[in-house]
Amino acid sequence: MFFVLFLGTIILGQVVPQNFEVMEGLLTEINQCKQIREKFSELKTEFSDIEIRGIHKDMRLKILTSVNSRLRAELRRVIQTNDLLKDKLREMSLKLGETRQPTSEIRVQNTTGEVGEGGKEISCTVTNHNNWTYFNIERNGQTVVHVAPDGRAQTRFNPKYLTITPTIRENLAEIAISFASLRCTDEGLYSCVIEGNVQSQSIAVVIKTPSTGKPSMSKIGDVIGYKPTDFKCEGQPSYPDGKLVFQVKLQNETVFRNFEFPDPTVVDKDRNCVRKQTISVTYVFTEVWDEAKIRCKYKHSEDYDETDVFVLSPTLCGQNTVDNRGIRHPQKSTHYVTCNEATPTVHQCPDNTCFDEIFQTCADICLV
Question: What integer is the mean pLDDT of 141-156?
Fold first, then answer.
């Protein structure tokens, strides 16, 4: 039993991961060992226990010596084979490294600046690409800069506003454009194009301008509660990504806070590096908004316009039994409301006079 377990350990620990042929050979040896054991059992009736143990020991050593010799030989063969494979792979890697060409690529540099700003630069750099006959920068499908292999550059640009610097070296070609003073007409998407199988790349020149003037907002004033009210705000926020935002301050609040009205309609008109934006809103005001203030401003700016909101109760005209009889405005003494059936209309007294409900007239002195 001892030699069978010993061989099983060798098979599982060393041979199976290396070579299945070795496993088959060892299984054959194990079967031979079993046959020898059976032979030993037969000999027990003819020889003494001492002799049997002696024969058993000799046979076991003989078998183990034979098997271990075979294993060592097989392992040496596997090691030699692995060394040969490593040498082959190393040789193939060296050959591939000698024949493989570096990958050609284009790198670009974008720029962002304000109108009139100088020192801004864009560039287009091509590496690991030789034997080209043209290297261009295009805009709107037209070539605006052309560089020849000897470094000579031709351009449609006015040299008064920019400088073009071509650089040609081994495995490298570069075009750099430095703007003396950015103009709105410089803005746009440029393309780097070089002869050969190299993917063109885009360069972005973004011109930024600050907001202009103050926003203008609809004056909401008096609204009938729970009825949709339309209003809008328009202005010229910063270009190219500026926007208008709303802030509100309710009657019981002391400071303005940002507020987003649901589903606004935003229209941007960008032209000549100027953005014109209009936000249109339809909103249903409730009594919570009574005597509130709504402010429209440029984001990241203190310029704004604002309006007051006065919410009239939808039941106000229901309390008035006489059509067109004036009702003093609930919040403003200088205003009054008349009703045509259930439809209220707000009026303002002239010259900041007050409405007198008793005499149904605007007077200098308001009777409470």
Answer: 91
